[in-house]
Amino acid sequence: MTTETMNIRDMCAAFDVTPRTLRFYEAKELLFPVREGQRRLFTKRDRARLKLILRGKRFGFSLEEIRQLLDLYHMDDSQLTQLSKTLTLAERHLADMEAQKVELDEAIGELKGQMKWATDKLASLEAR
Question: Residue 21, exposed/middle/buried by CB under 10 A (0-12, 13-18, 19+)?
Answer without folding.
Answer: middle
